[in-house]
């Protein structure tokens, strides 16, 4: 049957979106269907009885992006099969009978091929030289291929790999990790169980690796690099099946949304105590330096003094757990009078002023003592000496006898 795109769907397959997606799986095919459309993007030939792949049957598939051949009995792969598939991204050859592969078996699609599945094949790796020459390949699946060792040059031409799956093989727990050294872009590696020392060496050898997926658990190389223990570096998988949502909420640890009343009372008490102490010290400073300000400060009622505004103690908290903001200036009573002079002076300035007054007083006392003990009092102290008292005695007045 011919579709709108001008291509006919092969009778052995089912097509969708015209002939862009062909499903020819589970049809017991022994040969590739003839007349494959040239605009096909995804071709599924999995789970058939294909043993040999006819190169001529794929000559028109120049737009093919995904070729699925898993679950067949393919023993050889001809590299000319990919000669015109310069857009192929995914090639799945898993669960076949592939044993020997040339290093350039997939090189014809090397520039576009990103994912290659070779799992469940009896792969035989070369003793020397690279296994495959695909520097642009990003994902390679070699799980369950009966591999027992990896020669040092196996991945030398697969430097672009970000994911490598080697699970289900028979490697030694203390295997050499030098084979992974060329994989500078590898981020996830799946392996059978390895010893702790081998895992640590592997994390050091591959610079960008993040997760090592072992048989029983995953190891994070990021945590190992941050001086975490081996047990702390084990990643716990989150269950994929979500738990049923219960209509009744079970008691859980409540998320703290506001402080308890007990803590609020403690903060208030601490604030009142610190405020009263600072008010007392402020009143002493006012009495000593500026007595006239005592009257003004007494009119301020319960308002905190200037010293209580600049302290760094705990801030008061109201009933809604909100911090009460204290202003930097305080009004002088409820009648809107201007702030007192003392409120504009910082405690540090107040201390310096008090020390200056005390120093001047002490200096005046010293000068007074010196003036009393020396003879320079007239010059230094600005006072005149009193004349010495005379010893002359006034004569007694004569009283007339007639007045006696």
TrEMBL record:
Compositionally biased region (Polar residues): 324-342
Region (Disordered): 241-264, 290-342, 383-404
Family matches, as InterPro entries: Leu-rich_rpt, Leu-rich_rpt_typical-subtyp, LRR_dom_sf, LRRNT, SLRP
Low complexity composition-biased segments: 297-308
Superkingdom as given in the UniProt entry: Eukaryota
Residues that span the membrane, as ranges: 353-371
Any Pfam family hit: LRR_8
Residues annotated as domain LRRNT: 8-42
Protein name: AGAP011296-PA-like protein
